[in-house]
# Entry
Amino acid sequence: MDLRPLLAESETKILFVVADGLGGIDSEGRGTELEAARTPNLDRLARQGATGLTYPVAPGITPGSGPGHLGLFGYDPVEHNIGRGVLTALGINFDLQPGDVAARGNFCTLNSDGDVTDRRAGRIDTRECRRLVEMLREIRLDDVEVYVEPVKEHRLLLVLRSKKNTLGAEIDNTDPQRTGVPPLEPHGRDENSQKTARMVGEFLTQAREILAQEDPANFVLLRGFAQLPRLASFKESYGLNGCALAGYPMYRGIARLLGMKVVDCGPDLESEIEALEAAWSDHDFLFLHFKDTDSLGEDGDFEGKVAAIEELDQAIPRIMELRPDVIVVTGDHSTPSAMASHSWHPVPVLISANTCRVDGVQVFGETACAGGGLGHLPAKHLMTLALAHAGRLRKFGA
Amino acid sequence: MDLRPLLAESETKILFVVADGLGGIDSEGRGTELEAARTPNLDRLARQGATGLTYPVAPGITPGSGPGHLGLFGYDPVEHNIGRGVLTALGINFDLQPGDVAARGNFCTLNSDGDVTDRRAGRIDTRECRRLVEMLREIRLDDVEVYVEPVKEHRLLLVLRSKKNTLGAEIDNTDPQRTGVPPLEPHGRDENSQKTARMVGEFLTQAREILAQEDPANFVLLRGFAQLPRLASFKESYGLNGCALAGYPMYRGIARLLGMKVVDCGPDLESEIEALEAAWSDHDFLFLHFKDTDSLGEDGDFEGKVAAIEELDQAIPRIMELRPDVIVVTGDHSTPSAMASHSWHPVPVLISANTCRVDGVQVFGETACAGGGLGHLPAKHLMTLALAHAGRLRKFGA
# Structure
C-alpha cells in the first residue's frame, strides 16, 4: 500500500544489514550455514527482537539480485522488474540515463555460413573483451549515441541514447540461445522499439564487418533490452534519506536507482563499516550490503559461508555502537551452498528495536525463524515494518 | 504469477498424493484424525522434508471440491470458479464441450396451484430418476441440442449445445430455494444468456407437460448454469505431462479440464497405485487422489477416517519405490469428522525432495505443520513450490 499519507516526522534511524544469499539448507546434518555458524551477537539481537521468514518474490520463486533487493526496499519485485540490460549497466557503474536502452551482449563465434558455433566465443578473457570493445566503439549511428562497455570475459554492454527520448526497449533477443543457427534479427514489439531495433540492426551490421577477421570472437549476440524502470525514490516513498554502503557495483546501482546516496567503499566488511560510521549522522536509512555469504554459497562452500556469517556476527557489536533505532538483519534471497546457486527458500529475518514484540526465538536461524513472531511474509513488507518500529508511520484511518 | 517464462527443461518427476478432506479437528482429546492415526511412513517424509498448512481458497473459506483441486493445481480458485453445472457434468463423466451450457437440476413436486411443495420430490431413488430422464429426452428445441442425464436420486443434469457457439450461462436459478411459491422463470443477464434462457424456458414448458401426470416428481428446478471455464492446460502452464489416478468421476473431470491424461482405474487405493505404477514412466506430474478420507469425514466417522489415513500411510513405501523427485502429500480441504462436512480449517502439507529445507517437524499432523518451514500459505503456491523443488524453474530476474 501507499505509505506516503502515513509518514510521520522522526529523528529515528533504520539500519538494514543485508547478508546476500543468507538463507541456506541443511546438507551435512548440521543445519543450515546460519545454524551451523557461531553467532552469539545475531542470536542476542534475535532474542531481543522479532523474527520470521520472508519470501523475496513468492513461494517457490528464486529471485535474481534485482528483484531480491527491490523487495527488501519495499518495491513489489514483480511489478517493478529491472531488465537484464539495466542490471548489467548498474553492475559496471555505467551512468545510465532515463530513456537509454541497454542490452547485455556476448561476444560469440560464427562459422562461414553465419551460424553460431559458440555463444560465448570460448569465454574469451576480459582483456580480449576490452580490446574488441575498443574496436566496436568506432561504430556511429544516425540520431543516437552508442556506448559499448566491456563487462567480464565474453560479456559486454550496449547502450543507445537519444536526445529525443523516443527509444523503445521492447526488442527481442538476437541471441538464438543455441548453436548451429544464425543470430536472430532484432525485432521491436512497438513503434519506438521497432525504430530502435533498426538502429540495433545497423549496429550489428557494422559490428559484423569490424569483427570479421577476429578469432574466435567474430560477432555479438544481444539480449535483455531494457530501460530504467520508473521507480519512486526512497525519499519520496518513505521520507528517508537513504545511504548505501555496498562494495559491489550492482547493489550500488540498485541503491542509486532509488535515489539513495551511494558512498564509495571497498567490497570488504571493514571498509563498509568504516563508511557506515562516516555516513551515520547524515542519513536516517542505511543499507549495508555484505556480499561474501552469497559468493561462498554460489561456490558451494559450506564452511566458507559459515565463516562469512561468523565474520558478520563479529562485526555486530561495533555496528550496534551506532545505536540504530531499528536494525533489520536479513538476506535478499537464499543461496544454499548445497545448491551452489540462488534458491527459492524463504529468508531468515530479525528486527530489533525498542518497539518489538519479542517472540521467544532464542537463536537466529531458519528453523527458529520459521516459528518467529513476524511469521512468513513477502519481503516487501519489511520496509513497512521497519518504518513502524521506528515510529515513522501514523495510524491508518480514524 | 505467470511461471511460463521461468520454466526449465528437466527429467524430474513430481507426485501429488491428495487425501481428500485430509485436515480435521480434535474432538476426542486425541488430536485430529491425522494426529490420532499411526503414520510412521508419512512422519518419515515429514521429517525428511518441509511442512506447512495451506489455505485452499482463503482463511475461513470452506472450499468445494472444484476450488479445492484448482488451488492444488496452482489455479486461483476465486478467479477460475467452476460452476455447479459444469462440476455436475464432470462428476458423471459427461463429455462437456466448450460453449455448452450445463445446469444441475432437481426433480421436484408442484401442487395444483403450481407452487413447489417439495424441492426434491421426496428424494426419489436413482432408478426413478433414470425413468423420468428417459421421458425428458423426448424434448426437442430449435437450434440447440438438448442432453438430459440422470445423476443420483432426484438430481439430474441438463446440457444445451449449439453449433453456433452463441449460448450464455449467465442465467439465474429457477429453483426458488423454498416451498410454497412457484418455480422462477429462467432469466438471462446478458444477450446470449437471455437467448439461452428462452430455450431453457421452452425446455421447462415441455418438461411440465411431459411430467404432468407423474407423482411425486412432476417438474424440474434448475440451478448453477455454467460453461466450461477457460483454463490454460497443465502442459501450457507448467510444461508438465500430467496424469491423474483418480477413481471418482469428479476428480477425473477436473484433471481432464486441465488437459491431464486420465487413466482408468477403480476407486480403491490398490487400483490407483497399480495405475500409478503403470503410468509412471510416461508422465512427469502424477496426481493420485484418495477419496476415503473425505467420505468417512463426511460420515462423521472419526475412527473410519483414522483407518483410511493409516491405509494411505501403509501404501507410502510402495509409492516411494517409484522414486519421485518431489512428493507432495496434502488434501484439497479439511473434512473434520466432528463436523461431518468440508471445513475451512487449513490443510496439512508436506513436501519431500532432495532440495527441501528440512524444518525440524517430526510428525505429519496439523499442530506440527503449523510450525513448519513452509508456513501457512495459499494452496495455489504448492505447484510453484513443487516445480522449484524439482529444478523446473529458472531464476526470476537477473
